[in-house]
Amino acid sequence: MKLSLLYFARLRETLGVESEQLDSEAANVAELLAELRQRGQVWTLELAADKVFRVAVNQEIAGLDTPLADGDEVAVFPPVTGG
Question: H helices of the chain, where?
Fold first, then answer.
């Protein structure tokens, strides 16, 4: 299936990519993150389980068990605070 991935703030800068189209067989967010970590180096470090970041699927905050479907938009971003 095709997914649209978006990366924001420090993740965009550290991973060196703002967005991408990805062909993936991931059934849920956890599998997608595991797939991205397999890219190695900075991907493994920045998307590690002990790092703080959020994932949204189609602009809704998602959990690791959130299912993915063809055409979904997946955003990965660090938590932000406002003032």
Answer: 9-15, 29-37, 41-46
